[in-house]
Amino acid sequence: MTEVMFSDQVAIITGAARGLGRCYALDLAGRGAAVVVNDLAGRGADGVVASITEAGGRAIAAEHDISDPEGAQQVVADALAAYGRLDVLVNNAGMLRNGRFDELSADRIRDIFAVHLAGAFFVTQPAFRAMREAGYGRIVNISSNTSFGMAGLVNYAAAKAGVLGFTTSLAIEGRPHGIGVNSVMPNGATTIMDDEPIPGFEEDTQFASAFEGVAHHFEPERTAALVTFLASSKCMASGQHFSSLGGRYARVFYGVTEGWLGPDSIATAEAVGDHFSEISDLERVELLPTSIGDEFHAVSEALAGRTPA
Ligand SMILES: NC(=O)c1ccc[n+]([C@@H]2O[C@H](COP(=O)([O-])OP(=O)(O)OC[C@H]3O[C@@H](n4cnc5c(N)ncnc54)[C@H](O)[C@@H]3O)[C@@H](O)[C@H]2O)c1
User: Fold this and answer.
1) Can you spell out the DSSP letters for 15-55?
2) Which of 10, 13, 230, 295 has the CA that lies 20 to 30 A from 139?
3) What is the DSSP letter of 239?
4) Whose CA is nearest to atom 6 of ligand 1?
5) Lowest pLDDT segment from 152-156, 193-197, 272-276
6) Which of 24, 83, 136, 156 is catalytic?
7) Cβ 43 under 6 angstroms from ligand 1
């Protein structure tokens, strides 16, 4: 593939003062993008801007809280005021508020949804409007493989799974306007877990040892390679989810089993119970829907093909 470049393009990375976001910002800037480095005030966005400009790149800091609709709006306003356009948005800002489910306070639940999910909505709305006007855009939403299931992080896992639904549906709205929207389950050694130990993590020795087996490949740059590609004009995929783990890159999808087509009359709970193994049987994955219409289409075909009773 020819070089992935962002000459004349403008990118916003939220939560980019450190960790993975910083790495995405440096990579995009090194490939010609003017980068808007968002983070909370006092977290060091200026330092990332300095690293970029000292290397000959273009960047500004946008120190606003993206969980606040006005702060989020201001990040996009700063980008447009400084550079007059917006091509790329990476919704990366995040933090943890871990705890066993039955002990999670209302604030720890709300804060997670406010940053990871509502925050992504608040930044993306003004960004999407600017991209729609230009007829081009790339949005990369940062999810997490905790969406597959992880104890001690139920609030976070739920918000990050929400990011997947956000991605799939927004991709459908973006398609007519040249806006691609994908999500990434990243991995990288950062300080995000420093003040938020995961309850029960040490006890899950199987996971802890698998974690060790991957940890030596935890450079954030490995994930930046995927995010940068998805953020570029070379990427024509949209509405898709990807995982970056230990240097292995893969697509993540929802699947629907062939299931059990119930009777024409309304099925009973007992009948569902009788057919439960057929309903759950992963050997018979039939459909990888990319929209709600795909599943409706599959069932409508099955119903149409049924031999009349
Ligand atoms: N590190 C991993 O292995 C991993 C795994 C899965 C998902 N993630 C996700 O990747 C993203 C980056 O994680 P990281 O490990 O680099 O974390 P990090 O803590 O190093 O960086 C996250 C940044 O987001 C900023 N931030 C938090 N709330 C904000 C807000 N309201 N407004 C603006 N900025 C805000 C923080 O100040 C911080 O600088 C997060 O969304 C995280 O949930 C990380």
Assistant:
1) T-SSHHHHHHHHHHHHTT-EEEEEE-TTSSHHHHHHHHHHT
2) 295
3) S
4) 144
5) 193-197
6) 156
7) yes
For ligand 1, is residue 223 a contact (CB within 6 Å)? no
Q: What is the pLDDT of residues 60-103, one digit of tens each?
A: 999 999 999 999 999 999 999 999 999 999 999 999 999 999 99
Burial of 77 (0-12, 13-18, 19+ CB in 10 A): middle
**Residue bearing tokens 């709300």:** 110
Residue nearest to atom 21 of ligand 1 (CA): 19
Give yes or no for residue 261 CB within 6 A of ligand 1: no
Q: Which of 8, 13, 15 is nearest to 25 (CA)?
A: 13
Percent of the chain with pLDDT over 70: 99
Atom of ligand 1 at shortest range from CA of 188: 3
Residue 157 CA to ligand 1 centre (angstroms): 14
Residue 225 to residue 271: CA distance in whole angstroms: 49
Measure CA of the first residue to CA of the last residue in the chain; give whole Å.
56
Q: Is 156 annotated as catalytic?
A: yes
- In the reported structure, the alpha carbon of residue 272 is separated from the centroid of ligand 1 by a whole-number distance in angstroms of 42
Q: What pTM value is reported for the model?
A: 0.97
8 A C-beta contact, residue 12 and residue 75: yes
Q: Please give the pLDDT value at position 37.
A: 99
Residue 309's pLDDT is 58
Closest CA to 119 of 83, 155, 91: 91
Q: How far, in Å, is the centroid of ligand 1 from the Cα of 256?
A: 32
Atom of ligand 1 nearest to the CA of 44: 39
Q: Check if 90 has its Cβ closer than 6 Å to any atom of ligand 1.
A: no
Name the percent of the chain in helix, strand, coil, to the closest 5. 45, 15, 35
- What's phi and psi for 195, nearest 5 deg? -100, 10
